[in-house]
Amino acid sequence: MKPIIEVEHLSKRYRINPADRSSIKYVTLRESLAAAARAPLARWRGKDRRDEATVWALDDVSFDVNPGEVMGIIGSNGAGKSTLLTILSRIVIPTGGRAALYGRVASLLEVGTGFHPDLSGRENIYLNGAVLGMRRREIDARFDEIVAFAEVEAFIDTAVKRYSSGMYVRLAFAVAAHLDPEILILDEVLAVGDASFQKKCLGKMDDVTRSGRTVLLVTHNLPMVSQLCERAILLQRGRIEAMGPAVSVVSHYLASLDAAPATA
Questions:
Q1: Domain contains 234
Q2: Is 85 helix (H, G, I), strand (E, B) or coil?
Q3: Residue 136 near residue 152 (C-beta atoms within 8 A)
Q4: pTM above 0.90, yes or no
Q5: Beta 214-218 vs 96-101: how paired, if at all?
Q6: What are phi and psi of 241, to 5 degrees?
Q7: CATH of the domain at 78
Q8: pLDDT of the chain along its 264 residues, tens only?
Q9: Angle between the 121-131 and 165-178 helix axes, to the nearest 10 degrees?
Q10: 35 found inside a domain
Q11: Could you count the other beta carbons within 10 Å of the beta carbon of residue 249?
């Protein structure tokens, strides 16, 4: 079976505390020429930009995801999980490696992703559907189901900037889950919803996976990973520490947390 997601040697590097250029209001031609003239000397002295402190948010990450698979991505804060998803969602360009996704992608990386705040809920449903490449009649066929799932019927013609965070995420998830993307990318957004809505989302995600769609799920809710995901990836310091059956990877992560020294 050909993977629907192929990630090969993916890396992303960030410079730490780069120079604050906002304080430089004007740069004259003379200053630009002088800086260019000094650059070779700075490199000879070993003071070029390569010596700036850097951090690898992702470092040589490789994995495949098969069609219809639910893959969990777990790890501590700062492990590189969100960086990985932003690269897969084509929001961030990697420093090295490649990521290939074969199919329509719906990403829900934070509350309100892809929504225009001044448009109504109704207008944003059609906007998101158009972004996913859907025809208007396809969106029409699912519109009532989306609104009912999100429980925002009374506010569907209100600008979404007036929605609460819970209403925002309910509608955003409903749109992503009902508009038939081949790949659904979720980053901890379900933590915003209440317990009842999270239970509804779990049921919908079961429907999504049974229909053959692929889900990448980042969450700190480890029981959810064990319940929903067939496989999981544990990221630590930008590298894959463990990958395999979700239950085994979650157990490995919990064991590593138990073994870590307590901090004051």
A1: yes
A2: helix
A3: no
A4: no
A5: unpaired
A6: -90, -30
A7: 3.40.50.300
A8: 799 999 999 999 988 765 544 444 444 445 555 666 666 665 555 554 444 588 899 999 999 999 989 999 999 988 999 899 999 988 889 999 999 999 888 887 765 567 888 999 999 999 988 877 778 998 999 999 999 988 899 999 999 999 987 888 888 888 877 877 889 888 876 665 677 777 787 787 777 777 788 999 998 889 889 988 999 999 999 999 999 999 999 999 999 888 766 544
A9: 40
A10: no
A11: 24
Within a domain: residue 13?
no
Q: In degrees to the nearest 10, what's the CA dihedral of 189, 191, 194, 198?
A: 70
Residue 109 lies in domain: 55-259
With contact defined as beta carbons under 8 Å apart, do 109 and 156 qualify? no
Strand-pair partners of 215:
70, 184
Contact in structure between 158 and 150 (CB atoms under 8 Å): no
Burial 153-171 (b: 16+ CB within 10 A, else e): eebbeeebeebeeebbbbb
Q: Which amino acid is at 216?
A: L
Total structural domains within the chain: 1
Q: Hey, is 67 helix, strand or coil?
A: coil
- Whether 24 is in a domain gets the answer no
And the tokens for 12?
């992303």
